[in-house]
């Protein structure tokens, strides 16, 4: 019977020690203030946005380079010229 009484008290003591250790953690201290939390999330958003733009730029330039080497882009260029010519013919024949 005495073991069962010691266990909850000991568990509560261990739990309070663990809670004190977690409250002293840097992550909790950083998010303790609303202004620090907003500043942290602002910087995190800037880093995410910059990383997304830089990554997309790299991927698009690699894909463009590969397509240029395969010579698919000139075919698309000719097709775009034909479409532009058709648009110009249609707009000039419509008249005022």
Structural commentary:
With about 100 residues, this protein is mainly alpha-helical. It has 4 helices and no strands. The longest helix has about 35 residues.
Total helical segments:
4
User: What ranges have pLDDT less than 50 throughout 5 or more consecutive residues?
Assistant: none
Please count the beta strands (DSSP E, at least 2 residues each).
Answer: 0
Instruction: Indicate the structural class.
Output: mainly alpha
Indicate the percent of residues in helices.
over 70%
Sum this structure up briefly.
The chain has 96 residues and is an all-alpha fold. It contains 4 helices and no strands.
Write the layout of secondary structure elements.
Elements: H1 2-23, H2 26-30, H3 34-70, H4 73-94
Give a quick set of tags describing it.
rod-shaped, 96 residues, single chain, 90% helix
């Amino acid at each position: 019977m005495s073991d069962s009484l010691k266990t909850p008290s000991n568990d509560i003591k261990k739990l309070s020690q663990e809670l004190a250790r977690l409250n002293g953690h840097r992550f909790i201290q950083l998010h303790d203030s609303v202004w620090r939390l907003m500043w942290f999330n602002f910087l995190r958003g800037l880093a995410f946005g910059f990383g997304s733009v830089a990554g997309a730029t790299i991927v698009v330039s690699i894909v463009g380079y590969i397509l240029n080497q395969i010579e698919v882009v000139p075919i698309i260029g000719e097709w775009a010229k034909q479409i532009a010519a058709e648009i110009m013919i249609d707009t000039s024949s419509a008249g005022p």
